[in-house]
Amino acid sequence: MRILITNDDGISAPGLAVMEDIAAELAGPNGEVWVVAPAFEQSGVGHCISFTNPMMIAEMAPRRFAVQGSPADCVLAAKHDVMKNTPPDLVLSGVNRGNNSAENAVYSGTVGAAMEAALQGLPAIALSQYYGPRNKDLDDKFEAARQHGLHTVRTLLDKGVWSQDDYGIFYNVNFPPVPGSEVLGLRACRQGFRRDMGFGVKPHHSPSGRKFLWVTGAPQQQPTAEGSDADWNLKGYISVTPMRADLTAHDVLDALTMIE
């Protein structure tokens, strides 16, 4: 198996090293693991691509490339340049530092890379490690992902749905904020929504008097609807959410027939 790895935390991120270990075991001794990842952190860029600017790419080592661009850019670089003659069999994005459950998935560059892979006709899984009081002080904060990542990916490859539709399926996986020994299992579930929260901005002034705005988040331990991704994560389960890039609100279409 030939596996492409990318992320949004950057090519030097510890979560990428976790993913490399998972991919190496999955690929086996006769497989290949390729890394095409952002040269610098790209958290929160979503499915952004560098449409108006060229991106520099540098080979750091055999099968290891750094791209001055977004995670989606990295997938494009791999598919159409680095690996154009030998495309990957699977794209793994992550392991992200922090969760991409609920509304976080909309902003996530980790998820954005998996989305781009699916649009390019490649099977893809985004993987993220939730942080919380039960794992934030561990020596290895990625312990749950490290111990359960390989099994999770193998299970999806074996039992998951992989469509070849125009908007193919990709998967968003989040490991719970608990030690590896306390992970309770896998749950297939919908994307949640954290109410009464969201991103905002906080103004600051520099010594020169110029005004800057810092984007602010909210506590990630807030519960979501029962049976949704963050709900299962906070209960100690690995969430597996099938996704598509199709943004159509299909449930509303019938209600709009009166406008035709």
From TrEMBL:
Pfam families cross-referenced by the UniProt entry: SurE (PF01975)
Q: What is its EC number?
A: 3.1.3.5
| Cofactor: how bound | Binds 1 divalent metal cation per subunit.
Query: Which residues does the record give as a divalent metal cation binding sites?
Result: D8, D9, S43, N96
Its cofactor is:
a divalent metal cation
* Coiled coil start-end: none
Top-level EC class: hydrolase
Catalysed reaction, written as an equation:
a ribonucleoside 5'-phosphate + H2O = a ribonucleoside + phosphate
Localization, per the record, is: Cytoplasm
Q: What is its main location?
A: cytoplasm
Note the superkingdom of the native organism: Bacteria
Instruction: Please name the GO terms that the record assigns under molecular function.
Output: 3'-nucleotidase activity
- Indicate the segments forming the Survival protein SurE-like phosphatase/nucleotidase domain, all copies: 3-195
Q: Which UniProt keywords apply?
A: Cytoplasm, Hydrolase, Metal-binding, Nucleotide-binding
- Alphabetized InterPro entries for the sequence: SurE (IPR030048), SurE-like_Pase/nucleotidase (IPR002828), SurE-like_sf (IPR036523)
User: Which protein family is named in the record?
Assistant: Belongs to the SurE nucleotidase family.
Q: What does the record give as the function of this protein?
A: Nucleotidase that shows phosphatase activity on nucleoside 5'-monophosphates.
Please identify the protein, giving its name as recorded: 5'-nucleotidase SurE
Gene name of this polypeptide: surE
